[in-house]
Please model this.
Amino acid sequence: MRKYYEAIEKFHKKYKMKGTNNEDMTFRLNLLIEELGELAEAVTKGYGKKEFLEENVDLLNLIIGNLISTGISAEEFEKAFWEKHKKIMNRKKKKTKSGKYRVSEFKK
Ligand SMILES: [Mg+2]
Model:
């Protein structure tokens, strides 16, 4: 994770994103939606593994950029990641009414 974080941090520095619209979360959310749309297109139009991988990398880059833009350190993120991981590893897997399986917090 740290290597990815540092790479995106370099990208933000190279393109002088500090204090610009690139750190604005509304702008960044729009970028995420755009990239999610590209991933959806890759899946629904049956593009290949290369396109699927690229769109996932685009999303990961943006998510790491969200951390950098809001001043969240790689250490803070890793701590939050492992806390959440512990939580999801203790969840139940259930078949929903639609027949799909979910690992989630199920409320009655
Ligand atoms: Mg893309």
In short: The longest strand covers residues 92-95. The domain at 2-104 is CATH 1.10.287 (Helix Hairpins). The beta strands are 92-95, 101-104. The chain has a mean pLDDT of 96.
